[in-house]
Amino acid sequence: MLYSNVLVRWGAGACREHCNLQQPKENGMAEAARERPSSSVRPVDLSKLLERLELGIGQAAQLCGVSIRQLSYWTDKGIIQPTGQGASRTYDYQAIEKVCLIKQALDHGYSLEGAVAETEAFLAQRGKEQEHLASIDEVELRKLVLERADKLHQFADRIRRGLRTYRVSGDLGRLVASVNGLERLIAFLEANPYTVNTARQIALRVGRESDQVQKELELLEERRFVQKISYPGADVYRYIPPRRR
């Protein structure tokens, strides 16, 4: 019995000693957690990662949705500039972006020559805009941001008006479900009021499927938003500006 009591007292003392040793460690960890700044993890700047991106021809072709043969041909023709030469061709972000843009234009019906021209014009225009933004001071930059914000508000108002104006039948109700596509079509027509185009030409210009644009043009014609002019072999469409009151 005496031996048992000694063991119990010894065990209790050892337990207290062990707990006392563990408690400072736990307290230290809690204090360290409290001292650690809450914003130790920040958003990653993807632009810096993309600057270091380099893919082999197989990976680049797969990422862009083209065949290795296509990408190799465009590279041989000088359309795409690789970062590596010979058997170890590699492609950086700029090259991959250009391939994706060319593929996008090809999917919309452009020839390779036309797709390259559209892509280079797009990249050149974007480059000019970036140079302009880098050259202006903070006052002009603030003014430009406010102007673009105002344009976004106007664009949103046009979408809301379009929803009210064109939701007049079951077909148009389904059409309005694709507001972005319809808005791009209406914006194109309003921006080119004195030109006539076939449905395919308009589809290429707005980056849409030709069949869908054809259906939308027919519905807009019913509402006297556009005028259809029939020629042998093709129908062309012209925007009808609203009458001034």
Summarize, please.
The protein is mostly helical and 245 residues long.
Please provide a written account of the structure.
The protein has 245 residues and is mainly α. Among the domains are: 52-135, Multidrug-efflux Transporter Regulator, Chain: A, Domain 2, CATH 1.10.1660.10; 161-239, Arc Repressor Mutant, subunit A (Orthogonal Bundle), CATH 1.10.10. Helix content is 68%, strand content 8%. It contains eleven helices and five strands. It has a three-stranded antiparallel β-sheet with strand order 3-5-4. A two-stranded antiparallel ribbon has the order 1-2. The longest helix is centred in the first third of the chain and has 34 residues, at 2-35. It is globular. Residues 1-10 have low confidence and may be disordered.
Low-confidence stretches: 1-10
Strand tally is 5
Structural class: mainly alpha
Strand content: 5-15%
Could you name the CATH topology of one domain? Multidrug-efflux Transporter Regulator, Chain: A, Domain 2
Query: Strand sequence of the main sheet, in spatial order?
Result: 3-5-4
CATH class of one domain: Mainly Alpha
Topology:
Blueprint: H1 2-35, H2 46-51, E1 54-56, H3 57-64, H4 68-76, E2 90-92, H5 93-107, H6 112-135, H7 138-166, H8 170-176, H9 179-191, E3 197-198, H10 199-206, H11 210-222, E4 226-231, E5 234-239
Antiparallel strand pairs: 1-2, 3-5, 4-5
Helix pairs in contact: 3-4, 5-6, 10-11
